Amino acid sequence: MQHRTVHDVMTREVVSARPDTPFKEVAALFHRNDVTAIPVVDDQGRPVGVVSEADLIRKEAVLPDPGGRDPGRRLDAYDRARAEAETAGGLMTGPAVTARGGWSIAEAARAMEKHKVKRLPVVDEIGRLVGIVSRSDLLEVFLRHDSAIREEIDHDVLGRTLRLAPDDVRVAVHDGVVTLSGRLPRRSLVPITEQLCRAVDGVVAVHQTLTWSEDDTELRVEHPHAYGAGRR
Can you tell me the distance from the alpha carbon of 155 to that of 124, in angstroms, rounded to the nearest whole number? Predict the structure, then answer.
């Protein structure tokens, strides 16, 4: 089974800023390139943070209402310093949470969820920026056709990995949902088969009504004297 990696789905031409890039130039980069966030890199091209539209909007949020009706949003010292910043280095959220090109889609998704971020700068083995991956990039795997998912399960999971006969398990895929039916040689293969199918790129869920020829999950009770048990 071959899974798509961050390298497969990331954007390689990355718009970036330097820590000393002025506020207005950052805003212009967003506008010209139709992006909502950009990595901030140091002199060696290593990400040190990310500046987003939200970071720029913070400056507007603290301004008082021209009519005097609203004194503006109150921020703590850290956020106020960022709101008053004039360069990307002061505006950015840091340190940057990064990904590696060899990561699986699942690894990148877990990192985004853990750190509550919408995108990850992708770095090489020495930490230099080589791309950026967003939530929408990760969701591309779910655009995979049902026929491609079914073919991979039949050929790679059931045939090559589990070495089952072609007629042992029947596979149906509709809108990414996999349904397995048929008979496996051993009961212990049921959860293994289900787990392997779930790991196929583009699979939304797996349902199964699999049966088995041999129940190899039952505990075997040895004779009490088999290992000298009960001897005096």
Answer: 33
Is pTM beyond 0.85? Reply is: no
List the domain boundaries for the chain.
6-140, 144-214
Residues in a beta bridge with 58: none
Q: In what order do the strands lie in the sheet with 205-214?
A: 169-174, 177-186, 205-214
CATH topology of domain 144-214: Histidine-containing Protein; Chain: A; (3.30.1340)
Superfamily of domain 6-140 in CATH is CBS-domain (3.10.580.10)
Per-residue pLDDT 10s for the chain (232 aa) are 668 899 999 999 999 999 999 999 999 999 999 999 999 999 999 999 999 998 888 877 665 555 555 455 566 676 677 778 899 999 999 899 999 999 999 999 999 999 999 999 999 999 999 999 999 999 988 999 999 999 999 999 999 999 999 899 999 999 999 999 999 999 999 999 999 999 999 999 999 999 999 999 876 545 555 445 444 4
